[in-house]
Amino acid sequence: MDKKTNSLSSFISRFRVLIQAVATIVTNLHLPNFFKGEIHQGRTKMVCVPGLNCYSCPGAAGSCPIGAFQAVVGSSGFNFSYYISGILILFGVLLGRFICGFLCPFGWFQELLYKIPTKKLSTKRFEALRYLKYIILLVMVVALPVLVTNSLGMGDPWFCKYLCPQGILEGAIPLALVSDGIRSALGALFTWKAFLLGLVVLLSVVFYRSFCKWLCPLGAFYALFNKISLLEMNVNKGRCISCGKCVRACKMDVDVTKHPNHAECIRCGMCIKACPTDAVRFNYGFGKRRKSI
Amino acid sequence: MSAWIKRVVQIVLLLSGVAFILYGLIRGEAGVVLSKATKICLECVGIG
User: For residue A78, which residues of chain B lie inside 8 Å, CB to CB?
Assistant: First the structure.
């Protein structure tokens, strides 16, 4: 059996929690705003962060790509956002769902909840629910804000308004805690979304990343790029001893030996950590020039 | 997918991404994003 080596892939996988924490802080750099009850208003908000992070979070340094897309297509001037689509395409090609595994604050939040010691349930028998996130992307993010408009030609951000729990977690709760005005204005919509957040929290305690697997439109978009992303998983067949440890370690229900670039793989590196022979690694680069790291 | 096709697709998508961003900037989409993101999103926090 080959000995385990200290590859960059192994290093990145081992320090994933640290990378997730740093990514969450960098995404929400304006920490004093949490005490002031206001949001950052600088020009960095013109640029999107890679993960699901509400731009109404007091600390948010940039914009949520899903919220920003709906803001543009729901405005009276545009029916499609080339700007946000371009940013998402770049993120997708450069990193794919590595963003979900390492850079998304809401993904990290769910992982922390999953660490609560309770009985854990498998999501394998709910595989059909994976497709729900693609429907949410198409219907609530792309179609409805354009098709259902008011007399001024403006559409609602349907996903942000009716489904996204991140707006409550990062926006409503911290703002309402310090602002009487916000607190007194919260109504039925807040109650509905707070219920959804509670549901996602409960599901996340027993199911690994249930929101990412079934509901997240941003994850759905990046999933489309996993097969052609510059960052991919690679299983060295010469080193693999078919012990199955990687498959058992994967909480996204992916068999990395058969489908290394499966749409559900969030590149979390659990298979890399589990492999006793260092057969599983990240690859990065173009076509044949890609390198195992 | 062969490595050659994959490489072509990657390059085409990267170039498309950059072209989309530039075209969106010219159309003024970044201004719409900035204007929305610098105000508290009422729908997001459950007020709208």
Answer: 27, 29, 32
Place of tokens 């204007």: B35
Q: Tell me which long-range contacts A18-22 makes (C-beta under 8 A, separation of at least 24).
A: A19/A102, A19/A103, A20/A102, A20/A103, A20/A105, A20/A107, A20/A108, A20/A111, A21/A108
What's the pLDDT tens digit per position in B1-48?
788 898 999 999 999 999 999 999 999 999 999 999 999 999 999 886
Look at residue A173 and tell me whether its pLDDT is greater than 60. Answer: yes
ipTM of this complex: 0.95
pLDDT in the model for residue B3: 83
Minimum distance, in Å, between the CA of residue B12 and any CA atom of chain A: 10
The span from the CA of A47 to the CA of A50, in Å, is: 10
CATH class of the domain defined by A229-292: alpha beta
Query: How confident is the model at residue A237, as a pLDDT?
Result: 92
Name the nearest CA neighbour of A72 among B17, B5, B30, B38: B30
**Of A118, A110, A125, which Cα lies nearest the Cα of A206?**
A118
CB neighbours (10 Å) of residue B13? 18
If one counts every other C-beta atom within 10 angstroms of the C-beta of residue A152, the result is 8
Show residues of chain B in contact with A193, CB under 8 Å: 46
Q: What are the domain boundaries of chain A?
A: 10-223, 229-292
Average pLDDT, chain A: 93
